[in-house]
Structures are given as C-alpha cells and as structure tokens.
Amino acid sequence: MLQIAAERRLPIGVIVPALGTIEAMAELDAGEGERFETPEELFAELGI
Predict the structure, then answer these.
(1) Taking the CA of residue 15 as centre, how many other CA atoms within 13 Å lie in the half-sphere pointing to its CB?
(2) What pTM was estimated for this model as a whole?
(3) Which has the closest alpha carbon to 45: 31, 34, 33, 30?
(4) What integer pLDDT is reported at residue 21 of this predicted model?
(5) Into how many domains does the chain fold?
(6) How far is CA 44 from CA 6, 21, 31, 32, 40, in A?
(7) What range defines the domain where residue 28 resides?
(8) How far apart are CA 41 and CA 14, in angstroms?
(9) Is residue 10 part of a domain?
(10) Is residue 30 part of a domain?
(11) pLDDT tens across 1-48, in order?
(12) Distance separating alpha carbons of residues 22 and 30, to the nearest angstrom
C-alpha cells in the first residue's frame, strides 16, 4: 500500500481490452453469440 501511495499508481500494468473484445464480452453477457459445450464442437465450427 505504501508503494501505491508513494508512486500514485498500481505496481502492475493495467491492460484495457480492445474495442472488439469489449463488444464480444457485451454480446455474450446479453446472451447472444455462439457457445460450445466442448472444445471439439468449437474446433469443428472453426474447421480445425
């Protein structure tokens, strides 16, 4: 806590997500978007 107060910053880097990531998270929070039960279902959808 003293380091935070002295330096007036967090001792770690705070990363702000990109706009596309924020939009994707909001889409999932709204119950939209695709969800997969297993990794294999996701891989099949991606064709890998």
Answers:
(1) 4
(2) 0.48
(3) 34
(4) 94
(5) 1
(6) 52, 23, 22, 20, 6
(7) 16-48
(8) 33
(9) no
(10) yes
(11) 788 888 888 888 888 899 999 999 999 999 998 889 999 999 999 999
(12) 12
Q: d(Cα 23, Cα 20) in Å, to the nearest integer?
A: 5
17 vs 24: CA distance, rounded Å = 11
23 close to 29: Cβ distance less than 8 angstroms: no
Length of the chain: 48
Q: Which CA distances in Å does 35 have to 21, 26, 27, 31, 47? A: 16, 14, 11, 10, 16
> How many Å apart are CA 41 and CA 34, to the nearest integer?
11
Position 47 in a domain: yes
- 16 is written with which tokens? 């702000």
Residue 6 forms part of a structural domain: no
